[in-house]
């Protein structure tokens, strides 16, 4: 009995500390947040939906670089695909280029010390973002840099959902084919992605190159009007709500993790009540424990209100897209979940080019053709064990 009491006290203290740490850490974080809405720009924007096509273009542009390569990824695995990527970076560094690789502390943890040291010897400058630190150890261990930015010679840049690893080209049997959306941006917008990389590099290393002239050149205008938003665990939900409230005809949301919270769910239900079509495209499977279970409680109310939920079955679906009335398109790194809204650093591109939006819409239509429309009768047939998991997943959905 004494042991049980002691254990209960220890657990209660631990839970209390975690709650205090998180709340105090978030309060401190919001005081120093660097949310940025960049100016409207005009760039030439291409979209990649297949990992092999993306890597071919991406690796080739890095190989052809002449002055610098700045790379930020959430995840770089320790596998054959990653080694090819890192080898290219090492070769460019040996040529004398300024090559920097910034990785999330957790997402880049599989790289290994030997590989990191080898890259440094070749001249690659490596840093890690969001290392856990006191006094808010729990909060800082949860806040992740989820951005995926590359800038090459100040002329070509990339932003989107792909990381670096074999699963992104369909070589992991656990996932099969991997569907994602990643942008190549050439034009005025490159300078904004460059600035964001340098901000993150400064936050991680203390090295301030934000006013360095060679990183401040503005490329010629392109065809597509767009704007970047950079979020730090705040204001992303405000943007999502604004998108939904402005919709007149149709809302399309593509996301691997649909965990919007009650407030945004209610906005979607309100949109349905005023005659706006709401369509979700989500994966049939999952790549993390409990994320599917955390999504399911939101599906029922949406289906009953007339929403359509398409479950992509042709592999794993990792796209992060919102399209409003075919007039506005949001593509970037942020998922439609609480973690992206309230914890992660994210970067999204808001695109206002009807020709580009039409192209993306046609790609999503093809994804819907490789999806199963979830019916309420099928939704209701979930076994009791899954419903129990959903309750637990909902409790911790903030951290999934």
Automatic annotation (TrEMBL):
Pfam families according to UniProt: PLDc_2
A GO molecular-function descriptor: cardiolipin synthase activity
Subcellular location: Cell membrane
Main subcellular localisation: membrane
Gene3D superfamilies referenced in this protein's UniProt entry, alphabetically: Endonuclease Chain A
Protein known as: Cardiolipin synthase
Lineage, highest ranks first: Bacteria, Bacillati, Bacillota, Bacilli, Bacillales
Coiled-coil parts of chain: none
Any single Gene Ontology cellular-component annotation: plasma membrane
Gene behind the chain: cls
EC code(s) of this entry: 2.7.8.-
An individual GO BP term: cardiolipin biosynthetic process
Top enzyme class: transferase
Keyword Iron: no
Record-annotated PLD phosphodiesterase domain positions: 141-168, 313-340
Keyword Glycoprotein: no
Keywords: Cell membrane, Lipid biosynthesis, Lipid metabolism, Membrane, Phospholipid biosynthesis, Phospholipid metabolism, Repeat, Transferase, Transmembrane, Transmembrane helix
Matches recorded under InterPro entries: Cardiolipin_synthase (IPR022924), PLD-like_dom (IPR025202), PLipase_D/transphosphatidylase (IPR001736)
SMART domains found in the cross-reference section: PLDc
């Amino acid at each position: 009995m004494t042991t049980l009491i002691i254990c209960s006290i220890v657990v209660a203290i631990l839970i209390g500390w975690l709650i205090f740490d998180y709340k105090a850490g978030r309060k401190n974080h919001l005081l120093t947040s660097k949310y940025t809405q960049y100016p409207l720009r005009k760039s030439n924007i291409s979209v990649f939906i297949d990992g092999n096509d993306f890597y071919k273009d991406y690796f080739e542009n890095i190989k052809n670089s002449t002055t610098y390569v700045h790379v930020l990824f959430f995840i770089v695995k320790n596998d054959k695909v990653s080694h090819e990527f890192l080898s290219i970076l090492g070769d460019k560094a040996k040529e004398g280029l300024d090559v920097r690789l910034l990785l999330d502390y957790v997402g880049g943890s599989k790289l290994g010390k030997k590989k990191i040291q080898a890259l440094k010897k070749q001249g690659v400058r490596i840093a890690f973002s969001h290392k856990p630190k006191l006094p808010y150890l729990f909060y800082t261990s949860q806040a992740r840099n989820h951005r995926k930015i590359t800038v090459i010679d100040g002329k070509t840049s990339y932003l989107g959902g792909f990381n670096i690893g074999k699963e992104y080209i369909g070589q992991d049997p656990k996932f099969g084919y991997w569907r994602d959306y990643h942008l190549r941006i050439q034009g005025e917008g490159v300078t904004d992605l460059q600035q964001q990389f340098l901000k993150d590099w400064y936050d991680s290393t203390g090295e301030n190159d934000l006013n360095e002239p060679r990183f401040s050149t503005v490329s010629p205008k392109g065809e597509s009007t767009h704007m970047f938003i950079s979020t730090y665990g705040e204001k992303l939900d405000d943007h999502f709500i604004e998108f939904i409230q402005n919709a007149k005809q149709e809302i399309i949301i593509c996301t691997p993790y649909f965990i919007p919270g009650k407030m945004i769910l209610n906005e979607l239900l309100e949109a349905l009540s005023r005659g706006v079509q709401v369509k979700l495209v989500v994966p049939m499977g999952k790549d993390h424990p409990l994320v599917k279970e955390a999504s399911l409680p939101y599906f029922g109310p949406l289906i009953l209100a007339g929403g359509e939920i398409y479950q992509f079955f042709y592999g794993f679906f990792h796209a992060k897209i919102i399209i409003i009335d075919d007039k506005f398109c949001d593509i970037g790194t942020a998922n439609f979940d609480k973690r992206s809204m309230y914890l992660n650093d994210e970067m999204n591109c808001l695109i206002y080019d009807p020709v580009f939006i039409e192209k993306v819409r046609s790609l999503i239509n093809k994804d819907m053709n490789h999806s199963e429309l979830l019916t309420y009768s099928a939704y209701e047939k979930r076994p009791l064990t899954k419903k129990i998991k959903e309750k637990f997943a909902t409790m911790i959905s903030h951290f999934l």
